[in-house]
Amino acid sequence: MSAFHYIAIDLAGQEKKGVIEAESEKHARQLLRNQSLIPIKIRFVQEKKIGSTSLQRIHLKFLKNGLNAKELSLFTRQFATLLSAGLPIEESLSAVAEQTEKSRIKGIILSVRSKVLEGHAFASALREHPECFSALYCATVAAGEKSGHLDRVLLRLADYTEQQWQMRRKLTTALIYPSMIILVAIGIVGFLLEYVVPKMISVYGHLNQNLPWLTNVLIVISNLVTSYGVYVLIGLVVGIYFWRRMLKKNNELREKVHLLLLRIPLIRYILRTANTARFSRTLSILSASGVPVLEAMYISAQLITTIPIRKAVELAVNHVREGAAIHLTLKRTTYFSPMSIHMIASGEASGQLENMLERVAQNQEDEISRMIEVGLALFEPAIILLMGIIVLFIVLAVLLPIFELNQFTG
């Protein structure tokens, strides 16, 4: 079975686009007619070689963006539910694809199903789409296939992906109000400096008197904003864009930046907490799914985003391979809290490592949530206070010459 991208007309005359799975183009046209659609254009999804290897991968332009957290969570939950009901993998994938309205997601699911029908393992088919399914996801699925409990493993993955989506949604929602405050503050200050202040200052130019230093500072700032504000804004946007590209491509530069950030106590605490939580959660899921400890630790380490922490954990994995205890090697990294090390040691001793790792992750994630709440609670009044100070500065700079003029004439 192959995937075909189609354009068709329904009975109401509306144009429909999507992806359909069929044995041939003729078969695809017949399937569309069975759905009361008149096929206009059908295009086979071409396969491309990657580099110099002989591996083949389906590539559509609308597949390149992958799946976001919400889409991955929904797919995993639906697929896990169908598998738990006893449906084979290919039928479950077909059912999920039929329920999906977005052509991009449907194309991804159908391409995975095509690989499964060709005889590939489900995990192997998922690895054909690294932009959609992470190493954690594929390794967990592979372990589930090997153990014969794929449905249980996928349910655990569904819980994990839903939790990640909920955390992102919570953070995004929490940032909406502060972002609006910042935009309003920038807009008000920009309006004052661009239009109000120049008109007020032009009046003082005809008074032939020495202006207060505060007013002179405001005049300089207003002139800079009026003359170069747009160029500065464009420069900042372009600079940030190229800086991010440099960080993405240059690992050495990114590592130096991470080392610099880790020297700042508050940022070090945030990065350490976030990365150890991600590592512990991933290791817990992989271990509980039957992935060997060393492989699970290596995969979990790759998901750590801060390079110095990742390198320290990778070194710890090598020590575990040589026979050292997990909690001792992680303790040497200095990035795990004493409580986390104690809980991991207890898990090793009692044979409940997966459960203790899950508790470690939960504790760290709760700490991150508290930090976000406190940070936002402090951030909002701080922005309002800063905006008030800026407006007060502008008002004083504008009114001081008037006060001095009144004193002079009086």
Characterization of the model:
It is a single chain. The chain contains 15 helices and five strands. The relative contact order is 0.07. With 410 residues, the chain is mainly α. The protein has a domain at 177-410: Receptor-associated Protein (Up-down Bundle). The longest helix has 57 residues, at 353-409. It is flat, with a radius of gyration of 29 Å. The strands form two sheets. It has a three-stranded antiparallel β-sheet with strand order 2-1-3. A two-stranded antiparallel sheet has the order 4-5. The model is unreliable at 46-63 (pLDDT under 50).
**Biggest pleated sheet:** 3 strands, antiparallel
Helix-and-strand structural type: mainly alpha
- Along the chain, the helix and strand elements come as EEHEEEHHHHHHHHHHHHHH
- Named at the architecture level, the CATH assignment of the domain at 177-410 is Up-down Bundle
The CATH class label of the domain at 177-410 is Mainly Alpha
Shape: flat
Strand order of the largest sheet: 2-1-3
Distance, first to last CA: 94 Å
Strand coverage percent: 5-15%
Total DSSP E strands: 5
- Rounded mean pLDDT score: 83
Low-confidence stretches: 46-63
The number of distinct helices, counting runs of at least 4 residues, comes to: 15
